[in-house]
Design a protein that fits this description.
Number of strands: 2
CATH class: Mainly Alpha
Radius of gyration: 18 Å
CATH topology: Arc Repressor Mutant, subunit A
Number of helices: 7
Shape: elongated
CATH architecture: Orthogonal Bundle
Distance between the termini: 43 Å
Strand content: 5-15%
Largest sheet: 2 strands, antiparallel
Mean pLDDT: 83
Order of helices and strands: HHHEEHHHH
Length: about 150
């Protein structure tokens, strides 16, 4: 199980919002600029999360996105599951037709351990475990320093 680009962008955006503190909605343009990702693609991802219990959205001037719950209440799996099927634990590292439980490939058992570790990590890790307001502030300062 390798995370899709959509799931990665969703995680990065959720972490960005967690680090921002949630005192105001953040416009999609600002999030896209901070993450250096395509705005339209990110907008679609954020709207998916806004239809769930992950993000809240506000329309109009001063609108944007913010976390619907505190970062310590949101596990990474809460974000990722809207983009990747984590229940599919039969995916073979070497391709869908290469193995199964009855006829496993040479990587089957070791890959099953990796899949399990990734799934556990996503379930056990909260956004607050990975977010750091200090990191976001340092990024803002670096972005504002004029380049020679």
């Amino acid at each position: 199980m390798i995370l899709s680009k959509s799931a990665k962008y969703a995680l990065r955006a959720s972490l960005c919002l967690a680090e921002a503190g949630g005192d105001r909605p953040m416009p999609v343009d600002e999030i896209a600029d901070r993450l250096v990702v395509p705005r339209n693609y990110l907008s679609k991802i954020l709207h998916v999360l806004a239809r769930t219990d992950v993000l809240a959205s506000t329309r109009g001037p001063g609108g944007g996105f913010q976390l619907a719950r505190p970062p310590h209440d949101l596990a990474l799996v809460d974000v990722v599951r809207h983009f990747d099927d984590l229940s599919d634990d039969t995916t073979c590292l070497l391709g869908p037709d290469r193995c199964c439980e009855v006829d496993p490939c040479h990587a089957h058992e070791r890959w099953a351990e990796v899949r399990s570790a990734i799934t556990d990590f996503l379930a056990d890790t909260k956004l607050s475990d990975l977010s750091s307001p200090e990191l976001l502030l340092s990024v803002d300062v670096v972005e504002k320093v004029p380049m020679p």
